[in-house]
Every structure is written in C-alpha cells, then in structure tokens.
Amino acid sequence: MVGSIIPSSRFTIRKMLAPVDWDRCEVFVEYGPGVGTFCQPVLDRLRRDGTLIVIDTNPLYIDYLRKHFRDSRFHAVHGSAADVVEIVKAHGHDHADYVLSGLPFSTLPDGVGPAIAQATHEVIRPGGAFLVYQFSARARDFMAKHFRRIDSGFELWNVLPCQLFWGWKDADD
User: Fold this and answer.
1) Which InterPro entries does the protein's record reference (predicted)?
2) Which of 1.20.120.80, 3.30.450.70, 3.40.50.300, 3.40.50.150 is the CATH number of 10-168?
C-alpha cells in the first residue's frame, strides 16, 4: 500500500528530521520507504557507526533499495512494521532511537495500525521518537494510545500538504 504517488518534498524531509539528535542516533528505522526519498537524507545525517533499517511489505521496493543504496549502514527488510522489535533484534540491536513512518494509517487493514503503534513504542528507547507524516490526522489517534507527548506540525510545501507528528518516548513511558 502506498501513502502517496509523489515523493515527499525536501521541505517535508527537512522538517521531519529536524528534531532528531543525530549525535545520539545509533539506530534509525523507516517504515514504508518506497523508493527511498528519506533514505539518503537520513544516511547523510547518520553517524558513521549508525544503522538505518528500512521495512517494506513490497518486495519490489526492497529489491530496488538494495540495489540503489550501497552504504554498509543501510539494511532493507521485506516485512511488516508490526514486527519491528524482532527486525531490530535480528540486526543486533535492542532498540531503535527513532522510527519514521509515512504509512497510510487511515487505510491500513483493521488492527494493523494499532499493532504498529504498539510495536513502535516498544522498540523506541526513552528519549527517542516516532516521526510520522500523513495527509490526515488519523495516525495521531494511533500514536496517542502509546505516546503521551506528541508534537505536531504542518508542511504546506508538499504534494499533498501533510501533517507532521513527533511522538516522544519519555523515560517514564
């Protein structure tokens, strides 16, 4: 399932990634990377010893990404975002620092959105965040069940304009 047929704008990318503490980011995960619009900007900011794990259910995207990104920090996984805890562990890590998603939460099959939100909260370390960009605010509803602190924004310079959310995992979450 694709959230948009047009890649995110450079304005959306810059705004979404702005709150990330790149010096403390060891593991960055992206759900539904598609053709990799966010991948290079993340790799450009990621530490030399960091890891970028992208997860997609479409094997064609995964094949494309594996051929396109030759960075040793990059790992493309054919799978479900709901399995992020197991995927991160399979890559030798016990948590992710940040998880980015452009998945279309409003059109996911019943039960999938809540499962993804729960697994995401579980995998993110305290102080990390779930970064979500959407055309509707529905994703915030899924996030709010697990993340008490959610910052929001809006990016007009995107086709279509999109809502931005940063769900922060506090130490007592």
Assistant:
1) Methyltransf_25, SAM-dependent_MTases_sf
2) 3.40.50.150
